[in-house]
Amino acid sequence: MTLLIFYSLPPSASAQSHQVGLAWVGSSKVAPKILKGFKEILGGYYAGIGLEIREGVSEDELKKILKEWNQSKDAIVLLDDAAVKILENTSITPQTFIATRFLKFPPPIHTKTKKPIGVSGLPTAGYQFDIFEAILEKIEKVALIVSKDASLSVFDISMAKSLTKGKGINLEIHRVEGIEEAKEIAKKAESDSVDAILLGSDEKLNKKAKSLVEAAGKIPVISFYSEGVKKGVAIGFRPDYFKLGMSLGRQVLEHLLTGLKDKDFPLSLDKNPSVIINPDTLDRLNIHVPFEIMEQADLEH
Questions:
Q1: Could you report the per-residue pLDDT of 146-193, keeping only the tens digit for each?
Q2: Which domains does the chain have, with CATH numbers?
Q3: Whether the model pTM is above 0.90
């Protein structure tokens, strides 16, 4: 069901009136969290901004909304990854922004107008590999397991390649049909002198991470994401969606209040997502977590 909300911030004598449209496609647990951070910025000491929210629309509805907002809004904000392709292929006059969990490189642009899209994204993975190395100590060979048919596998591979190359880590890439093929790779990891198995972002693989962890035996399974940690993945990361929303809000405000636009937008990234560890898995593998990491980590059993 589509929910239409008009959210007007308190009026201010010093603030010029601006109109912002914000939407996301389909059901989402993440978008409301991003929206809360976004409102925190726009509803602070800035005012005179009218915010229209279209919540949980279909892709066809979004296309119609964008045409409508093209004439009536000063800025357009989308809160989900599915909308990126629609936004890229739509001619839009107002400046556009997107909050995305899985940032692609180079950042998206409108293919018709070549206008850049303001991006608040997650995450830079250099931080994640620093954590992996600090906990695992030896990480010279990594087996990356991704799904053959998952759209985000390309992102997982690109990110892992760039990071392991810079650190001198030998990366093996395995594109699998499903969990059974992944388990066979995991069973051979120890004999293949693999130091860690890096699990990609595919939802189906993460849902069955428990059997993959069991197949890996003494080899730790790690991830850039948090979904598999409850199922035995040793280390993962969880983005702070409220903080992401605040970052997005700052970008929009900078555009509305200073006129910053197009190529001037910086790429806003959450460089320090929360570390999530499974203490039971780490204890079983006899892996010690440095105190400074344990102090800031969230535990998932």
A1: 998 766 677 788 878 877 877 888 999 999 999 999 999 999 999 999
A2: 3-122+240-269 (3.40.50.2300), 126-238+274-299 (3.40.50.2300)
A3: no
User: What is the phi/psi pair of residue 8, to 5°?
Assistant: -105, 125
SS3 of the chain: the string is CCEEEEEECCCCCCCCCEEEEEEEECCCCCHHHHHHHHHHHHCCCCCCEEEEEEEEECHHHHHHHHHHHHHHCCEEEECCCCHHHHHHCCCCCCEEEEEECCCCCCCCECCCCCCECEEEECCCCHHHHHHHHHHHCCCCEEEEEEECCCCCHHHHHHHHHHHHHHHCCEEEEEEECCHHHHHHHHHCCCCCCCCEEEECCCHHHHHCHHHHHHHHCCCCEEECCCCCHHHCCCEEEECCHHHHHHHHHHHHHHHHHHCCCHHHCCCEECCCCEEEECHHHHHHCCCCCCHHHHCCCEECC
